[in-house]
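cron nightly-structures :: item 1 of 1
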Amino acid sequence: MNAQSNYRTYIKAGITAGGSLLKNGEVKYSSIIIGKPEYPLDKQPKFSIRLADGLVLKSTEFNYEKIRKYAKEVKPFKANTEWGAEIKEFTIDGMCFVFLKERCVSFRANFVQLPDRTYSPEIGLENQKELYKMPLNEIQLEDIFGKPDRFEDKTVL
């Protein structure tokens, strides 16, 4: 760890998580992206999430009709260069589901604290009863997705 670093990125084929690197060495991962074009969501380790209403969904259940029922579609600010312009994105409770031709190819979750509300997505192993609330620590992240291929530490303002 660089003495000046305050942000750590966990990188594993198709999974990227980022968060604050505290002075004591602990990390609070506040964002996670699962699924990239070369490693789409269905080629990633299986996991579960909990929606704000308590419903638990396995990543294998992220189908277009189900997500469309719970989430609202958002129009990207610009054409997504990673997946192309034909994607559809749906958001709910700090989470984003990215569909390409009705196949969920990527999932993002972010811990977001606003003046009037906080989004703290819950995520865990596919059949885990207790899910972890974001931000995740390093042990929790590795419990779900395993050891990273590498970490990248940097300084952000």
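cron nightly-structures :: done
The mean pLDDT is 90.
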